Amino acid sequence: MNFLDLAESRYTTKKYDANKKIADETINQLKEILRLSPSSIDSQPWRFFFVSEEQMKQKLAAVSYFNEKKINEASHLVAFTAIDDIQNFEEQIHLHLPEGSIDYYNNFLKPLPEAEIKSWFQHQVYLSLGFFLSACASLGIDSTPMEGIKGEEYDKILNIKGYKTLFAVAMGYRSADDHNQPAIKPKLRLPLEQVIVSV
């Protein structure tokens, strides 16, 4: 299947088949794909928490508003977090990035207010989300990106230190009667000429 076909067929899954689990080999591929996600200056200001253990998944589901049922049915849940400690980030880039990338950070980002620097970190994590959703589709995995979660509660439950949960992705295999799949509910997208401008 080519990428356009994947874009047409993938959708936000609303109901999962709770009896179908993603194979460990596939999960390992997705972990490696996330590790390879793009970020500005290869900054990688993130960590990704993969959750498959049912009791842990249930605890997170309970602090996920209307997403609770999806998470409990899904095979896995991934919490996407951004680094929340600027000093730790600076130590990380000095260990792992070339001089040019460090210079970019020092000249263009470090002088900014703390809130703007942390916002930049978070934007990088959102880049990884698009990469991840596409990867899931390419592997035949259904997914649900969710901002409707209590991030601070995720941080407590997962014992996250120095990072901040931004959003999560449930993944697994759709239920045959999921009402949101394109075969039942066509995708709603603006016309091409309304969103694409050729200059």
Descriptive report:
Strands 1-2-4-3 form a 4-stranded antiparallel beta sheet, with helices on both faces. It has a single domain (3-195), classed as NADH Oxidase (3-Layer(aba) Sandwich), CATH 3.40.109.10. It is built from 9 helices and 4 strands. The mean pLDDT is 97. 46% of the residues lie in helices and 15% in strands. It is an alpha+beta fold and 199 residues long.
Question: How are the secondary structure elements laid out?
Answer:
Blueprint: H1 3-9, H2 24-35, E1 46-51, H3 54-61, H4 68-73, E2 76-83, H5 86-96, H6 99-109, H7 114-138, E3 142-146, H8 151-157, E4 163-172, H9 192-195
What features would you highlight for this structure?
199 residues; 4-stranded antiparallel beta sheet; NADH Oxidase; single chain; 9 helices
Evaluate the radius of gyration. Answer: 18 Å
Structural class: alpha+beta
Strand content: 5-15%
Please provide the count of β strands.
4
Number of domains: 1
User: Globular, elongated, flat, extended or rod-shaped: what is the shape?
Assistant: globular
Q: Report the span from N to C terminus.
A: 30 Å
CATH level-two architecture:
3-Layer(aba) Sandwich
Which consecutive residue ranges, at least 5 long each, have pLDDT under 50? none
How large is the count of helical segments?
A: 9
Strand order of the largest sheet: 1-2-4-3
Tell me roughly what share of residues is in helical segments: 40-55%
What is the top-level CATH class? Alpha Beta
Summarize it.
By secondary structure, this protein is α+β, with helices and mostly antiparallel strands.
